[in-house]
Amino acid sequence: MLKRIQYQQYGGPEVMRLEPFEPGRPGKGEVAVSVRFAAVNPIDWKLRMGEMKIVTGKRFPRAMGMDMSGIVMAVGPGVERFKVGDEVFGQTRFKQCGALGEAAIANESALALKPANVGFDQAACLGSAGVTAWNGLIDKAKLSANQHVFINGCMGGVGEAGVQLARSLGIRVSGTCGEADIERARALGVETVHDYRRTDLSQLGERYDAVFDTAANMSRAVAYGLLKPDGVLLDLHPSPGKFLRAVFDRRLKLVVCSPSPEILDNLGLAASDGTLRLSIAKVVPLSEAIGLITALEGGQRLGGKAVVRMA
């Protein structure tokens, strides 16, 4: 029987279990994937903690993991873009999750064909980081060549994807990261890199077309102080209050990871031609994934993506 990481109640790391499960059949517009690799993201444990239980509900067991790559094992009624045997990457269904397991089901619209020259490990990392970066820079801020974005946390998952996507479009990038990542940021084309521990962002003189707070730790006052008069703040942590504020405040753009076939296809092309490659810091087998997730949740920093290998 197949295995996956799941839990029987909302809670901390102690509720995670690696257990056997019976994979269901894909429904209308859905695709069943034999997972090869999954990438770990903070959303995985936030969902497990119950932070979105108004959406995820009270039915258990619940599976973990959003980002994955693998091979199509079955398709549901109405699926036209994929067939059994296709190599794919993307995201599982938000409410059900399941990427941290040997098989998972995804909506057809949240998958793309994996380019032949991109490894399954790298492809698994593209989902949340790549889609969120695209949603922010292109869909929300609508940045174009020669504009300038400030990415707070430019060497995190979303930040690193954002740097590379921006540079591929001719967008100038400055930002913050930890001291250990400064040279890596410069190598990717970040013009001015600030050590987030030593820099008072309120004292910077430069003004930007957009501020992308991928680290989610900037105050609105500091972020707005970095903007040009027509600049926008890209906020990754929406709340009901922020949605209301955004109705009246044109500078505030809330970014929710929203995959689409077009975005995922573009990410695949960028990965294929080498303009988008996320750093992988650690790969573990599924049997060791709970320990890895627990360490990351506890604050361990790896300097790149954490990836789980299914076999």
TrEMBL record:
Single GO molecular function: oxidoreductase activity
CDD domains, sorted: MDR1
Top-level division of the source organism's lineage: Bacteria
Domain Enoyl reductase (ER): 11-308
InterPro entries reported in the protein's UniProt record: ADH-like_N, Chloroplast_QOR, ER, GroES-like_sf, NAD(P)-bd_dom_sf
PANTHER family in the cross-refs: ZINC-TYPE ALCOHOL DEHYDROGENASE-LIKE PROTEIN C16A3.02C (PTHR44013:SF1)
Record's protein name: NADPH:quinone reductase
